[in-house]
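TEACHING EXERCISE
Course module: macromolecular assemblies
Task: Read the component lines below, then compare them to the predicted structure of the full complex.
Student: A.B.
Group: 4
Components provided:
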Amino acid sequence: QITLKESGPTLMKPTQTLTLTCTFSGFSLSTSGVGVGWIRQPPGQALEWLALIYWNDEKRYRSSLQTRLTITKDTSKNQVVLTMANLAPVDTATYYCAHIPGCSSGSCRRFFDDWGQGTLVTVSS
Amino acid sequence: QSALTQPASVSGSPGQSITISCTGTSNDIGAYNYVSWYQQHPDRAPNLLIFDVNNRPSGVSNRFSGSKSGNTASLTISGLQAEDEADYYCSSYTSSSTLYVFGTGTKVSVL
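Instructor-supplied answer key:
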């Protein structure tokens, strides 16, 4: 059974740097094709993909936020960390991490099949 | 990369079928068969309903089905039930540096 859980501060001030940790179990981030992504959802709004990291340490970012985001993994701790610099009130959202399944029959997966419960981060002065 | 376009709301009576559209571009939905759909109940995390356009994960009811034509994908819910009342989001893999794009979301109401 795959589980993911996000952790981090709930209240931040503008210009600060946010660090969120996704701690997971039930899969290995060393398995071919497996990835972990971060998706956020401002209150009452739609989902927005932010970043992901693959088993081979390939990292991809939302282009509009690329200069502010950093994603890393610690395979031994089963954790993925997302940092977001220079926060603003518009970054107030619930932040989710989610699992991308590994490759199967030569085809790699492009969807998020298991999600964490999410963590609400409020940015306010 | 703009969000995929979905109707803000769709409603139906119990037992009816409804369809939610999701319109993208030739850089996302039109380029790949990597469309997925997610159901989200209030204050809950999204739950995967459909992947690769028309595949259901184990445990998802066969009342949910997906399809795609050109740059538009669709989710059909047949035999609508009260528990289907939720928000629904489509998503697609893209050819841009923003690898994934989500839809604007559709609120489904069961009358």
